[in-house]
Amino acid sequence: MQASVSSLSISHPNSTFPSNIRLCGLRQEALRIHSVSQLNKRESRRIRIVSRKSCLQKRLVSVSASASENCGPPKSFDYDLVIIGAGVGGHGAALHAVEKGLKTAIVEGDVVGGTCVNRGCVPSKALLAVSGRMRELQNEHHMKALGLQVAAAGYDRQAVADHANNLASKIRNNLTNSMRSLGVDILTGFGTILGPQKVKYGKVGFPNNVITAKDIIIATGSVPFVPRGIEVDGKTVITSDHALKLEVVPDWIAIVGSGYIGLEFSDVYTALGSEVTFIEALDLLMPGFDPEIGKLAQRVLIKPRKIDYHTGVFATKITPAKDGKPVIIELTDAKTKEPKDTLEVDAALIATGRAPFTKGLGLENINVETQRGFVPVDERMRVLDANGNLVPHLYCIGDANGKMMLAHAASAQGISVVEQVTGRDHVLNHLSIPAACFTHPEISMVGLTEPQAKEKAEKEGFEISIAKTSFKANTKALAENEGEGLAKLIYRPDSGEILGVHIFGMHAADLIHEASNAIALGTRVQDIKFAVHAHPTLSEVLDELFKSAKINASVTEPVGEPVAV
Amino acid sequence: MSHLLQTTFVPATSPSLRRPLTRTTHYPTRALHIQSKIREIFMPALSSTMTEGKIVSWIKSEGEKLSKGDSVVVVESDKADMDVESFYDGYLAAIMVDEGLSAPVGAPIALLAESEEEIAAALAQISSSSSAAPAPDPAPAPAPATAPDSSTSNDGPGAITGVSSASVSENFSSRSSVANGAMGSSVHPASEGGKRVVASPYAKKLAKEFGLDLRGLVGSGPNGRVVAKDVEAAVAAAAAAKVSASGAALASEITKPSGGGTAVDLGSVVPFTTMQNAVSRNMVESLSVPTFRVGYTITTDALDALYKKIKSKGVTMTAMLAKATALALVKHPIVNSSCRDGKSFTHNSNINIAVAVAIDGGLITPVLQDADKIDIYSLSRKWKELVDKARAKQLQPHEYNTGTFTLSNLGMFGVDRFDAILPPGTGAIMAVGASQPTLVGTKDGRIGLKNQMQVNVTADHRVIYGADLAAFLQTLAKIIEDPKDLTL
Question: I want to staple B41 with a disulfide (CB 3.0 to 4.6 A). Which of A2, A69, A361, B110 is the partner?
Answer without folding.
Answer: B110
